[in-house]
Each structure stands twice: as C-alpha cells, then as structure tokens.
Design brief:
Blueprint: H1 2-18, H2 24-34, H3 38-45, H4 53-84, H5 90-121, H6 124-148
C-alpha cells in the first residue's frame, strides 16, 4: 500500500520531467509559473542577433532532444527507486544514487557541449544566456522533485 502511494506520487512528479510522450507536463509547469511555454520563455530571455535565429532554434531543438533523453533516464531511475523503496538494499541504493549522479553529469556534459557549439556558431553571450536559462529550469525541476520524493527511510514504520 505504501509502495503504491510512493510510486503514484513519484510518477506524478516525474511525468513533468520525463517528456517521454510529450512536453505537456513541462509546458503546464512553465505556463503555471510564467504564463508561457518554455520555448517562449527562451525567446523572451535570449536576445538573438539578426541572422542567427534559424541557427539558434535548430541548436535549441537538438538540445531539447538530448535533454529529454536525460530526463527519461532520470524518470527510469526514480521508478526504480519507487519499486525498491520499501526493501532497499545496499546494492540497490548504490545503483540508484550512482544513476542519479550520472544524470547530473549528463546534464553538465550537455550544457558544456551546447555552450561550446553555440558560442562558436552564434556568440558567447547568447550561449551563456541559453545555458543560464536551462540551468534555472533544471534547478526548478530538481527542487520540485526534491520536495516530492521521500528520503530513504522517511516512510519506515517504527
């Protein structure tokens, strides 16, 4: 029963981050906070020089594909955590925390790759604005997840 509750709560929260089927949950989050879609937020935040818009949006789309794949890895790891939560073993905990760190490393790697490519092709300022916005969005998602995923042992019966 507790496992079902935890799994349902985690699934609801992580649907936002996964984007496995669509971007609708993330779009809903951004719209609820800012009243607009993520792409619109990026367009409003970043000042793209004339003649670079097509290239920027092409890079943005490539970035989003990679970001969604990382998000799916995070969701899969959270689902594993929910599945193992009630009888978490040492090896389970080790695998889950290592996978979580791998997800964070993947985000950093994606940001580095995207920044380098965008800085070279468009401008360092545009690239920095984009990465700064993406770090902000990722921190929002991580904060939401942190608030809604139980800590190990949090629901143990005493």
């Amino acid at each position: 029963m507790m496992r079902n509750f935890i799994l349902a709560a985690i699934t609801a929260v992580f649907a936002m981050a996964s984007n496995a089927q669509s971007n609708s949950e993330e779009i809903d989050l951004m719209q609820s906070i800012y009243g607009m879609q993520k792409r619109d937020l990026i367009a409003k935040h970043i000042k793209i020089e004339a003649g670079h818009a097509d290239l920027f949006w092409q890079m943005y789309d490539e970035y989003e594909i990679a970001r969604k794949e990382i998000g799916l890895q995070r969701v899969n790891n959270i689902e594993l955590y929910a599945e193992k939560y009630e009888k978490l073993t040492g090896p389970d905990a080790d695998a889950i925390i290592r996978a979580s760190m791998d997800v964070q490393k993947s985000f950093i790697s994606l940001w580095e790759k995207t920044y380098k490519k965008m800085a070279k092709s468009i401008s360092p300022v545009t690239a920095a604005q984009f990465i700064q916005a993406e770090m902000f969005f990722e921190n929002m998602v991580r904060q939401e997840l942190s608030l809604n995923i139980p800590l190990i042992g949090e629901f143990e019966t005493k």
